[in-house]
Specification:
Chain lengths: 711, 711
């Protein structure tokens, strides 16, 4: 017998007990929280107080921002979210002479607030189960890809119909359990968002990448934004005539402290989790996809840092892109460490063997479900074979801005020929403006030397592939070496917003006349991407029903119900303020303090501490934000709630439903949450509201905001 | 006002309270423990039970080994100490075919025990204050160097007289407070020490340099040796006719567990601390000496690792030397971090300013003591100026084996001309055999390519010095570049033990005839070393009385007494099993477990875990060594006792005076102990006796030893 680690035993134990006692794991879909006995769980708020369409509830104060969550904290549309959620907005507003990343930003009046470019706000109005309607579009004779396409088309039809009936609102259909349950969400949708107060990076991003995914944490990761609307209160694009938006509800800020053991909950928009997937999926992630992407990101970051060395303007220009790449890299590497430490693939395989034994034990059950696990594994085998080719196709437009732009131009030309409902989502009328805006914002990241270097690298990677894996149009570029690529970059007009907008109006036929080298490349690549998309639709058509059936048989086996994986829809998670033991003989306590900020100060720019902070602290100017037990201001707090990316900026509530913190990260051991959750190591991190207020008053001098927050 | 860190405040506080309440800091000289109220301090042993010359006491079981401590644990002279204290013995007994470092070593019978080459054992017999006698050799008109020489000569006279009166015993005079108090120690001295059981390196050195000076720790850092004597019980050199030595006393092994908060004490031979030194000394260490040595060691290690890559024999040959260099390097770098974090030099300067104010406040006191701090600082200013030259002279023989050998030969020729009592200690009749033995053992480390590379580097470093700093004989070697150095190494005969022994018999005049290039170099360097020695004697003659007077005035100022700095004599320290908070929101618990060993397992050779350990653990074969609370075997434990280098291998006693662990390291924050001690961060580390016994039984299969230990 081989022995692995503490976690091995813990997990053997978990597998056993999971049958009997449901853990607090779970990102509860907002329409299902009525099933929870919140009073018994230690909360003083009811499910109706949290979410009841048509009545004022807490969810009226929860906003979905680009890639994160926020919450209204005043009657005038003031939003609190994370500094890192607002990062791109701060970057886009910054210049070498007005470096808001470095120095922070404060609008003393509404007139001083600047647009948070590219940011929108969604607020949930209602939701409805549309599974029957969606699944009615399927029939048994359909090919796998056709299934996927039929579901997607049905989703779009429902969205368009709903939006037509609710002018100015936004509809989305979300897959809850893929292939099984679908929910329609209706949202208020605001398009004018502005920057109000961001602390300097030395607070808002204190600890930088070194502390990212790390506890104990000392980052003041918060920023204030404001939503605006037309004078009549309806959604409008940015206009000087717009007025602050008045939300149906906003959160009460709690100045009372929390302590270890207190109950807390979160409302937010967690992105994606993969807990119901098979061992074959996990092995694919562990062995192929995550290591490849982490290493590729690592390489890109190094190239960008080399290029930006000593050039302040480039440092600002690359900041958000580097931050994003580094975040994923560290997340993946932490997950890989976690998977290896837990031997999680082996654990999953063991669990599946036991499930197979359960299936095999009953001939009827075997007949109905015996194919699920082998059929799923077969698809991941195919993906493994195709991986070297598909990862390059997938990463190419992410890595090379000009490829991204050219691909979008070519795809748009094809899609815009179709009826609205038949188009790829990004090219539907309801989305196309946003797609264009995002595309033009990628120009903010563009640098010709970097793009040439990146393309050269991707070409080089493609040239080792042969046979059916070969990517001809890309590999062909390799003949001319990096000089040929640099020539392409010099010759293209895709760096000019006007040229892009003009091209976005052309038909496929017109595009074939283009002499732009990147348009030519994109035209050559287009059939490959189209065929990859069909392959992916076919796989989804196979995998989703398998996953739905797997979920059914596991339910039967474990005699329990499941909560759907996170999918970017509004969820509630609850838990307790608590520390944990990351390793033998070490205990991490659940509150950090300003003292710890000063302890971490070092020569590294990541751990720079503003002089003003040191002065205020030395003078013990804590105001009402002092925690009498700690004799300090609490900076960050830790809890065992179930969060993932997208929960960034989510409000943390005390048991009475008052705001006590802003969620922004997970501890390193909890990156693996996306695959497996455990009270043992799953810990998320918030900035304590007292630090938010202390910084806002004593560092930002933003007394206007404290007044607006009723402090 | 500038704010630094938590420690800043803590220390301001400590400086204040140190006046009023003495902390548990202190390595108590063994003859002073009668001043302690041990019962009130929570111990069930009396001072007489610990040390009473002429009666059987615990100190009869404490042995001073080369560079460390050990204790007798059986009537047959079985000694327990650290694996790292016995490391050189294990290395010297190892070969590629019998790699005891890697595989461990077990003698199943006495006949299988192998010599621990170079190791001796000292056991305290008695001690006596000889301050008056020593200081009587001084008079007011003496020059500074003459003072130092007079004291040294007086010490030697006392030693020789004492040893003459106590045949076969060993005497030493130790400076307690330099320039003020001197103690004469009489020791039993055994010269036949053998290796009995060493666990494999994957246990005894688990965690390697990565975990060195680190808590939480999982190293089974213990080894069993045995002392032998002539059949009549007297001390004898190694002989097959020798028999196991029967100590007057040996320790009882306690199988009961300890828990957090339990009282413990240690008896051992701590090497050196510098807590009574001035800010000028600390600044010299922080700015010059420690960084230089750490970097030089780093460089040497890298060179050795490069050379040994893929060569098993070289890996074994270099192991002990690399371990020693790395240990000092990490210790110095940790100290440097600690000094910077505490702003300790600034703190000391602040304290000294306050002391100066106290001195200046009273004209009589000013007249008597006003010169102390400036005069001390002046000497460190001189040392700072001379540093670039003196550090090369000091390091050269340590770095280059052939220089070490040649210098010893030349120095021996000069010293042996003198009367025994006038010689440098190493060349006195009582020490010269040991000096020769050690010199020949350095050949075990010798490698011609390495020595040439190291000498070339030292030559290079010397060549940047000019004017009075220039080291002519060394710099002159630089003319020929590395080729000339390689030629010297190829030509020398100092790699042949017989040649060295022959040279050690030559007179200075005979040596001048030698054509050996290293003898020639050493003859050229000899006047420089002689003059350096005189400079050092002069400085000591200045510094020691200043230190003695500083101590007096500080006593008066702080209204307290001091414990002398560690000086390689037997000390007692006591304290409590307890964890600590190394930084904000982190708590380190005081016991680690085998589970933690498995958690640390990795692909790195430093974190290899023996398969047998994994099997035994998985089978939960814990025997009587299970800690019921932890449900595991405790591996290492942590306490706030005051230790330093030399305490390695010291027995840790419970309150009843029974053996519960073997001290082996300090936590990283405690490396700075050598300069400053605090209950806040000063923590030392032992291997728990239960892990010692568990490994000995379940990994070593050494049931014979467990029987001998009465387990």
């Amino acid at each position: 017998m081989k022995f692995f680690s503490r976690f091995f035993l813990v997990f053997l134990f978990m597998v056993v007990i999971s049958v009997f006692s449901p853990a607090e794991e779970g990102m509860w879909p907002i329409h299902e929280i009525g099933r929870l006995d919140l009073a018994k769980l230690g909360f003083q708020v009811t499910a109706e107080r949290i979410f009841k369409p048509g009545q004022v509830s807490l969810t009226d104060a929860i906003v979905n921002l680009s890639g994160g969550t926020g919450s209204f904290v005043s009657a005038d549309g003031l939003i609190i979210t994370n500094h890192h959620v607002a990062f791109s907005a701060i970057q886009r507003a910054s210049s070498v002479s007005a470096d808001y990343l470095r120095n922070g930003f404060l609008a003393k009046t509404h007139a001083d607030e600047v647009p948070a470019k590219g940011y929108t706000v969604r607020i949930i109005e209602s939701c409805r189960d549309v599974s029957a309607e969606i699944l009615s579009s399927l029939n048994r004779r359909m090919a796998f890809a056709a299934r996927t396409q039929a579901i997607e088309k049905k989703m779009k039809e429902i969205i368009l119909k709903t939006e037509a009936e609710n002018k100015g609102k936004r509809a989305e259909v979300a897959e809850m359990f893929p292939g099984k349950t679908y929910m329609l969400f209706l949202y208020t949708y605001l398009k004018d968002v502005r920057l109000v107060y961001a602390p300097p990076q030395a607070i808002g991003n204190f600890g930088g990448e070194t502390d990212n995914w790390v506890w104990p944490r000392h980052t003041g990761d918060f920023t204030f934004l404001r939503a605006y609307a037309a004078p009549d209160g309806t959604s409008a694009d940015f206009s000087p005539a717009n007025v602050p938006y008045h939300p149906r509800s906003y959160l009460k800020v709690a100045s009372q402290g929390l302590k270890e053991g207190d109950r807390v909950f979160i409302l937010g928009y967690p992105g994606r989790t993969y807990r119901h997937r098979t061992a074959s999926y996990l092995a694919f992630e562990e062995n192929l996809r995550m290591p490849y992407v982490a290493d590729l990101n690592d390489w890109q970051i190094q190239e960008m840092e080399r290029l930006a060395q000593g050039d302040k303007a480039l440092v600002i220009q690359f900041a958000a892109r580097i931050k994003g790449l580094a975040n994923t890299m560290k997340n993946y590497r932490s997950k890989l460490t976690g998977l290896k430490r837990l031997h999680w693939v082996a654990q999953k395989e063991t669990e599946e063997k036991r499930l197979i034994a359960f299936i095999e034990a009953d001939p009827a059950r075997r007949k109905q479900t015996g194919d699920i696990i082998p059929a799923t594994a077969a698809i991941y085998r195919e993906m493994t074979e195709q991986f070297p080719r598909e990862i390059i196709l997938e990463q190419l437009p992410r890595v090379v801005n000009l490829v991204q732009i050219a691909n979008t131009v070519v795809e748009a030309a094809h899609e815009l020929q179709k009826k609205d409902v038949d188009r790829e989502s990004a090219y539907m009328d309801r989305n196309f403006d946003k797609t264009k805006e995002r595309l033009l914002l990628t120009l903010k990241n563009f640098h010709p030397i970097l793009d040439a270097r990146f393309l050269t690298e991707m070409v080089k990677r493609s040239r080792v592939l042969s046979g059916t894996l070969r990517i001809e149009p890309l590999a062909a570029l390799g003949e001319g070496g990096s000089a040929a690529v640099e020539k392409m970059v010099a010759a293209t007009r895709l760096t000019d917003p006007k040229a892009i907008e003009a091209l976005l109006k052309q038909t496929p036929e017109e595009l074939t006349q283009s002499s732009d080298p990147f348009i030519k490349l994109a035209l050559g690549m287009f059939p490959l991407y189209r065929s990859l998309k069909e392959t992916q639709e076919r796989r989804k058509g196979q995998l989703d029903p398998l996953a739905a059936r797997l979920s059914e048989v596991r339910k039967e086996w474990l005699k329990t119900d499941f909560i759907p994986d996170a999918n970017g829809t509004l969820r509630m998670t609850f838990g307790t303020i608590r520390g944990y033991s990351p390793r033998d003989a070490v205990y991490h306590q659940p509150f950090t303090t300003i003292r710890g900020v000063l302890e971490k100060e070092s020569a590294s720019p990541e751990f720079e501490v503003p002089e003003l902070l040191k002065e205020r602290y030395a003078a013990r100017e804590f105001g009402p934000f002092l925690h009498s037990g700690l004799q300090d201001v609490p900076v960050a707090m830790l809890y065992d709630m179930d969060t993932t990316g997208g929960n960034s900026g989510s409000p943390v509530f005390n048991a009475r439903g008052e705001l006590v913190g802003v969620n922004f990260d997970r501890a390193q051991e909890a990156t693996i949450n996306d695959f497996v959750w455990s009270t043992d190591f799953s810990r998320s991190i918030a900035v304590d509201i007292r630090y938010v207020l202390w910084v806002t008053r004593y560092i930002g001098g933003a007394e206007n905001l404290l007044n607006e927050l009723d402090i």
